[in-house]
Design brief:
This protein is of the alpha+beta class. The protein has helices spanning 3-10, 60-81, 107-122; strands spanning 28-31, 34-40, 43-44, 47-48, 88-98, 129-133, 144-152. It has a 5-stranded mixed sheet, covered by helices on one side.
């Protein structure tokens, strides 16, 4: 068993099924050694678990859990796209889109739900830059959407 899968198991976490795109786009796309993961929502069993705005419909703690759940959906795509983790080098960037009520200022702590999970599971492969956006609404009335860029290890084809 891969060490990442062992850490997931130790946390009592099971990766969800990979979500299907909500529109006409790919869930993930590669360019050289970069992997772009399309926006992931806090889906549980295929259903949106956290809807509405942080600071109006949901607390910051709810938002933290929503970010963590969206990160699990990212990990499901990463595992699939990286040949069960073997090609994953690191997470490079997270863009967190958090549906927020006006004057809700603890959104960096909300996005920590994703960053913390990546650190727990990926450890040295989890260091990343990130950006946070606070629109008043997201697709499907989701509370959060994560977009992730990861780097891949060079394949044998790249080396020769």
């Amino acid at each position: 068993m891969h060490p990442i899968d062992m850490r997931l198991r130790a946390l009592g976490v099971t990766l969800p099924q990979r979500s299907k795109p909500a529109g006409n786009y790919l869930p993930a796309c590669r360019c050289d050694r970069l992997l772009f993961i399309s926006g992931q929502f806090p889906l549980e069993n295929g259903h949106l678990k956290y809807v509405g705005q942080i600071g109006r419909d949901l607390t910051s703690e709810d938002g933290y859990q929503a970010a963590r759940l969206a990160a699990l959906n990212v990990l499901a795509h990463l595992r699939h796209e990286t040949n069960e983790w073997r090609q994953l080098e690191s997470i490079l960037r997270i863009d967190g889109h958090i549906s927020s009520a006006q004057h809700c200022h603890d959104l960096p702590k909300v996005l920590d739900g994703a960053s913390d999970l990546f650190q727990q599971v990926l450890q040295g492969q989890a260091g990343h830059a990130r950006a946070l956006f606070a629109p008043t609404a997201l697709p499907l009335n989701s509370s959060i959407e994560l977009v992730v860029i990861a780097s891949l290890r060079p394949s044998h084809a790249d080396q020769g």
